[in-house]
């Protein structure tokens, strides 16, 4: 073996290299080191759950004011990214839309939604793409929804489709309304809801789709309701009315009984079970007295798809219809409650009502789903310079975004005029205003909902003068829940406007 030759240059080089490597080991942050978003301190086991309070969107808004519009919380051990500004929402729902295109799976949605077979909770993938395209292209496409007449014209075929949808959706609304008691105080004689209710006959007297039987049941129900209000009250409970005004008739027609008089959650569960059983074993279209002719309704389309497409089982109809119930009832009635609440608080706006601006402003202040729909990161991704690990749940605080002073002047005030000369829309392209979400997982029911809200508000405002009962200070707080209803039902006095 050759003797080791002393070489000072080589020795210096080796020594320098070793020193550099050691310095690197001491000071260099490994490349895997991440830059997580700011987090409020958390407790062992529960993480930040104790900070949510009963109105999570408000609690998260307060936390975001301290920790920033992109913050990382922990619900138990689950990391949750909370996004509270238009910019950061754009990054999640546009820049990294695919990375955030899945939903977290909750035990409840697995059980209630047929193992997440509905559009809303299905994980991102082939099945979700397929059923979402059914929703977007076949059930709720713009052409079909636009064929509903405008708020001022009476229906034709397009309207029939709308009317059937409303009726299907009504089944759930009436069940939901079982939770909400309507206490109606003294009754002024000028109070008339007949006109209002018969104006809802726009939904029922389209003749071509509903048989006389269902019309009869509807009229009976309408008469019952009118009597109830006449005999009992002073103020109209708009909250309850929005949830039930077309419901009992269809519940009777479809299920043979009505649920709106139920008093507790047990009945609600029974009703939901009935409903699901009913949807599962019977062709709803056969059971509901709807004349088929050339009319294509939701159920027709779904059944045709099931017949033609082996990848969609009849079982998938149930979760898809549940999407319509969940998507189309509580949300729309919540939106209506808030629009009318704001109009009653701001009579100046009622006088020069510009529907589109009023609806946008109401949705800005009171998005029916304040936290939109939860998402999950499918891969590691950077949001606003922060590293977000795969598997992190994401909550977008639409309520906070709508009230962010960085995007809105006088953000806590109801000023529909701000939309009069503005191009900001609520269809998911302007991230300051995203009550329907955005991107791939955005709501497919936008146009449908806006048409429905406009129709009801137009009927209410053009046929009646509305005011609050004397001495009533409108409580504008919301209750906890996925949809942010008013904390107290909306009671208002209506006097008919002579035509
Ligand atoms: C005022 C009315 C409505 C509001 C405010 C609303 C709001 C929303 C929001 C915030 C989301 C989550 C979006 C996201 O994660 O980006 C959503 C999803 C959804 N909505 Fe709506 N919605 C309304 C009406 C409807 C209607 C009428 C339907 C159906 C008839 C519907 C069906 C759905 C479905 C199926 C999804 C899940 C989409 C997916 O995960 O791919 N919604 N909605």
TrEMBL record:
Keyword line: Heme, Iron, Membrane, Metal-binding, Monooxygenase, Oxidoreductase, Transmembrane, Transmembrane helix
Listed name of the protein: Unspecific monooxygenase
Organism per entry: Salvia divinorum (Maria pastora)
Chief location bin: membrane
SUPFAM superfamilies associated with the record: Cytochrome P450 (SSF48264)
Principal EC category: oxidoreductase
Alphabetized PROSITE patterns for the sequence: CYTOCHROME_P450 (PS00086)
InterPro entries to which the protein is assigned, alphabetical: Cyt_P450, Cyt_P450_CS, Cyt_P450_E_grp-I, Cyt_P450_sf
EC number: 1.14.14.1
GO molecular function, one term: metal ion binding
Cofactor section: heme
A Pfam family of this chain: p450
Membrane topology summary: Single-pass membrane protein
Annotated residues for binding of heme: 443
Cellular compartments annotated: Membrane
GO CC field: membrane
Chain ranges passing through the membrane: 6-27
One GO-annotated biological process of the protein: terpenoid biosynthetic process
Family, similarity comment: Belongs to the cytochrome P450 family.
